[in-house]
Specification:
Layout: H1 15-19, E1 29-31, E2 43-51, E3 66-71, E4 87-92, E5 100-109, H2 132-139, E6 154-157, E7 163-166, H3 176-236
Antiparallel strand pairs: 1-2, 2-5, 3-4, 6-7
């Protein structure tokens, strides 16, 4: 259950109870009465499950059997080993069938009677937040408060039997060194832009100079040809 962070394993062998779960899809909600009087008034949502061979159910595959699909990068249940690799893998559909061995249910609405081991008590979080903004949100801190003083520590005993105290490293913490590096990146980016602009201006200037030289050379060549033609024409007359 999300609100109490508790889990409970229920083994069902009665086929009459299982008949109420067949042909249901992932994301569908069922009444807790179908599992027994203990769950009367509760609403349960199907969040997933595995078949007898361990293949997990996948949302969007509208079948109650196992199928082989061509997987690529980003496909659930597949991790490519090479760039651009695709592979045909077996995966279970999102509809509950007779071959489902484990079915995951989430309590979406509580009933009048608490369930022992599920809703009677809550399990505290073992680890606290480590991102700076989440720590500020948890302790209602201002922007100028020192976040490192509010990090949640935990005490544990290591393998040697020594009791140790441990705390996470605060992530996304704004420090003077971080701001200095940010300014350095910004100045380097600005310097690169200015350098590119100067190089482009210099290239345009050199290109205009080369074009002018080519025009002048062509103009002089044309004038030489004209003068040569005139001289040849005068000599012939």
């Amino acid at each position: 259950m999300p609100s109490t962070a508790q889990q409970k394993l229920i083994e069902i062998f009665d086929e009459k109870i299982l008949q109420n779960l067949y042909e249901k899809r992932m994301g569908n909600e069922i009444a807790g009465d179908v599992l027994g009087e203990e769950y009367a008034g509760y609403t349960l949502r199907i969040s997933g499950g595995n078949d007898k061979q361990g293949f997990c159910m996948q949302q969007g595959i509208l079948t109650n059997t196992r199928v082989r699909l061509l997987m690529k990068k980003g496909s659930p249940g597949y991790r490519p080993r090479r760039k651009g690799e695709r592979k045909r893998k077996s995966i279970r559909g999102c509809i509950v069938g007779h071959d489902i061995a484990v079915l995951n249910l989430v309590v979406s609405a509580n009933g009048p009677n608490p369930i022992p081991g599920l809703t009677d008590e809550s399990v505290p979080r073992r680890l606290g937040p480590k991102r700076a903004n989440n720590i500020r949100k948890l302790f209602n801190l201002e922007k100028g408060d020192d976040v490192t003083k509010y990090v949640i520590h935990r005490t544990f005993t290591n393998k040697k039997g020594v009791e140790q105290r441990k705390a996470p490293k605060v992530q996304r913490l704004i420090t003077p060194l971080m701001l200095q590096r940010k300014r350095a990146r910004k100045s380097a980016k600005l310097a690169a832009v200015i350098k590119n602009q100067e190089a482009a201006a210099e290239y345009k200037k050199l290109l205009a100079q080369r074009m002018a030289e080519q025009k002048e050379a062509r103009r002089s060549l044309i004038s030489k040809r004209r003068s040569t033609r005139k001289s040849l024409k005068a000599a012939a007359e």
